[in-house]
Amino acid sequence: QLAVVDSGGGVVQPGGSLTLSCVASGFKADSYAIAWFRQAPGKEREGVSCISMSESRTYYSEAVKGRFTISRDSAKNTVYLQMNNLKPEDTAVYYCAAEGLLLFRRCSLQEEYDYWGQGTQVTVSS
């Protein structure tokens, strides 16, 4: 059974850091991609970052490039999103998604994913 579980959100001050985790189970080893999306109140869900588990190729949106780092631990089927220098505009519910077959250039598009985590709240506030 395929499943995705995300965790690690919390409340942090501007300039602070958080690390989100995403565990994907049931997927064929190193043959899937994982992406992080976020949705702020009143806004559409947007792609933040994604990684190919087989090649470790990565993508970052312009909004987070240079501040967020996505990484993988294939042995644990886990992907991490290290978020540094957080800003109030990073406040959102963050969702992890996984998919077995997709073109990596489409990895930031939510319609490419069938398996989603429940979401974890990230609040950046002083």
Describe the model.
The protein is mainly beta. It has no helices and 11 strands. It has strands at residues 3-7, 10-12, 18-25, 33-39, 46-52, 58-60, 68-73, 78-83, 92-99, 115-116, 120-124. The N and C termini lie far apart (41 Å). The model has no long low-confidence stretch (mean pLDDT 94).
Net shape? globular
Major beta sheet summary: 7 strands, mixed
Mean pLDDT level: 94
Reading the helices and strands in chain order gives EEEEEEEEEEE
Runs with pLDDT <50, length 5+? Answer: none
Helix content: under 10%
The helix count comes to 0
Radius of gyration: 13 Å
Q: What structural category characterises the helix and strand content? A: mainly beta
Query: Which oligomerization state do the chains in this entry correspond to?
Result: single chain
| Structure summary, number of beta strands | 11
Task: Report how far apart the termini are.
Answer: 41 Å
Strand fraction equals: over 45%
